[in-house]
Amino acid sequence: MRAVDIIIKKRDKKELTSQEIEFFIQGFTKGDIPDYQASAFAMAVLLNGMTPFETTDLTLAMAKSGQVLDLSKIVDFAVDKHSSGGVGDKTSISVMPMVAACGLPVGKMSGRGLGFSGGTVDKLESIPGYRVDLSTDEFKKQLKEKGIVVTGQSLDLAPADGKLYAIRDVTGTVQSMPLIASSIMSKKIATGVQAIVLDVKTGLGAFMQTLEEARELGELMVDIGRLAGRKTVALLSDMNQPLGSAVGNALETIEAIELLRGRAPKDYYEHCLHVTAHVFVIGQRAKDLDEGRAMAEKCIADGSALEKLRVLVQAQGGDVSYVDDISKFERAKYIEVVPSPRSGFISQVHARLVGEASVALGAGRAKKGDSIDHAVGFLIYKKVGDKVEAGEPLFEIHANSAEKLAEARAAVLSAHAFSDEFVSPLPLFYE
Amino acid sequence: MRAVDIIIKKRDKKELTSQEIEFFIQGFTKGDIPDYQASAFAMAVLLNGMTPFETTDLTLAMAKSGQVLDLSKIVDFAVDKHSSGGVGDKTSISVMPMVAACGLPVGKMSGRGLGFSGGTVDKLESIPGYRVDLSTDEFKKQLKEKGIVVTGQSLDLAPADGKLYAIRDVTGTVQSMPLIASSIMSKKIATGVQAIVLDVKTGLGAFMQTLEEARELGELMVDIGRLAGRKTVALLSDMNQPLGSAVGNALETIEAIELLRGRAPKDYYEHCLHVTAHVFVIGQRAKDLDEGRAMAEKCIADGSALEKLRVLVQAQGGDVSYVDDISKFERAKYIEVVPSPRSGFISQVHARLVGEASVALGAGRAKKGDSIDHAVGFLIYKKVGDKVEAGEPLFEIHANSAEKLAEARAAVLSAHAFSDEFVSPLPLFYE
């Protein structure tokens, strides 16, 4: 078998066999197949596509390129919840403790934020001391003992994916459905969880801008999960406007903690309860979504979810007092409430523009390796469909420089659009 | 400007600007743009195509990646003749001396054979001492003093092409019309000739298997030549069966020399005279093809073309006595005449199968850098349309091992097909 023949086969729109895909990925991981063959292959895949079978083979080959954890020896059943990325999406920080509080072990390895989209581990790092570099042994030990773990991506898992992603990033081959799906799923499969709830975002602030694309990605990942023997469900949720109110690392972490006290913006609360209910159903802790939702509400009401968050933060070296006293979180130097320039109905809060404004404040990275400012960001007060009066508070800016504050004010004002007519609120979920 | 954005633009089927193409090729030549970006770019070009303008820009950028010779300071007008490659195609060795004999300077840098297709410099090397590694200074000096030079490709000319070809070869991106055309034309333009006659082969033994593909390639190269200010004409000629009789390096060189004595298979003779006539017309030495043909015939009849070949061989260090006594050429150990297994009309002599059998005998390279055996090959006696009796000589094998001889016999027999009905001969030229 030769790498060039596999590239040619994909170039000519033919279906690759499992053996061919495994040969390619193994050779690439070991360095026998050079980067320039991998990039030509990625471009051929991007332009000619892959069948779900090929995509599954690619996923499994990347998962098997490193260590594949067997969590069944550690816990009966472990679940993971993954979001395709968006603005203000702090869901994992609220959902994982709720799930663990009901006795379902949750193990998550999460990426960092890149571009306008935030990352769970960046957010959690706004709690001083919180470690996101657990080894796979620490991951397994904590999952067994505490039933909850949320750390960064281990380099031992799916190294082919990391290597291929680095090439894709600089060769224009990121935006490929089979490559995106296999990248996400290879890491989930290597982590060893038995069930995965995928929250696929669609809209202005998501990687998948149309519902059709998001549905295709969701279905593809569910197919891969099923073919790989993992219970998988995909939800399609809105990302035209930011989720909840907070955008920025510490602000989002605070909002996620507050939800576990029953205090949260309505859209974010509904979103988290719906996701959690799905996790309980797929994890066979609830017979249907209604029962799952009731369980989620109960673990908030009785404080058990908040307690599980304390357990998580403590286990990973974080300062637990932050969970109990959110005023301890680092605050930005400048905090400004921006009033609405006019009356009317909110017709748009452009999620991507808000996300990019947040990156510009320092909350995100322009490129890999950049450091981030945890304190900065926004509180968005109004949602699409809300009625607003001129002069009423529209959003709040947290910034560490006066210059950036002014830029952010203009950017987020322009992310808002108004209408004189009534505007329907956006749905939280599409499917 | 960033390389990745140029790749993305081509990935998205947009037309690249001259500046973008030049930036990419310059960066690639200098090593600022790595191989893995070049291979992704090549795959995007292969799958999404390029306009003639883009292809011309790519050609000029590659030509300008190294030294571009200015031959106008050396001779009034220099021409080159290029074949897209085939089996038994020794045309340049006969045509170049005829052209030079009529006072039109000819300068050619030629590639080596690869795969089933032979290369002019490999054939000329069957004359002991013949140098194919002239420097560009030697090239210019010999062109000025002798009016004829045929050497290998200088590394100083179009280095981007050599570098890109090495990548294309191992990433499945060879078979792309714009990449093939720009590769050929960038070298011709860097050589500095003012006029180019392109002999584009089509058929079973050519890289372009269909007439449509060959026509497209021919038109594209003529467009590039015109846009680059070079007089360019493309002929489409048949390569379903080998050209002439001889296949193999020494055997072909002998056949090419013998043509200059007026002794040659009819198809090869007609082919060479037609090509030469075109060179005279484009080089403004003849007003039309008839006059060009008469000139070609005259320089064979009066021995001036043969004399020019002697001048060429001597100038490049070759043993001129080989030109005058072809029995001096190295001969293979085993020479076998294979009789026709049946009577009938020849309906096919599959050029590619003959070419591959010749490579198997050792006349060609399976991969770059392999050494070759100059003595081995075939003499093909019959052409499509010829009548043959059972037992009559069909072809002759020149081999250096008994085992390979047996393999070659079977392979070349299977390349021949017979019909009971009359079969029309193949045309020499299509357009």
Description:
- The structure is a homodimer of 431-residue chains.
- Chain A folds into 3 domains: 3-49, Up-down Bundle (Transferase, Pyrimidine Nucleoside Phosphorylase, Chain A, domain 3), CATH 1.20.970.10; 71-326, Pyrimidine Nucleoside Phosphorylase, Chain A, domain 2 (3-Layer(aba) Sandwich), CATH 3.40.1030.10; 331-419, Alpha-Beta Complex (Aldehyde Oxidoreductase, domain 3), CATH 3.90.1170.30.
- In chain A, 58% of the residues are buried.
- Helices cover 46% and strands 14% of the residues of chain A.
- Chain A is globular, with a radius of gyration of 22 Å.
- Chain A is an alpha/beta fold and 431 residues long.
Concise structural overview:
The structure is a homodimer of 431-residue chains. Chain A is an alpha/beta fold and 431 residues long.
CATH fold-type name of the largest domain in chain A? Pyrimidine Nucleoside Phosphorylase, Chain A, domain 2
CATH architectural label of the largest domain in chain A? 3-Layer(aba) Sandwich
SS summary, helix count of chain A: 17
Rounded to an integer, what's the Rg of chain A over CA atoms?
Answer: 22 Å
What descriptive keywords fit this protein?
four-stranded antiparallel beta sheet, 12 strands, 3 domains, globular, Aldehyde Oxidoreductase, domain 3, 17 helices, homodimer, 431 residues, alpha/beta, Pyrimidine Nucleoside Phosphorylase, Chain A, domain 2, three-stranded parallel beta sheet, Transferase, Pyrimidine Nucleoside Phosphorylase, Chain A, domain 3
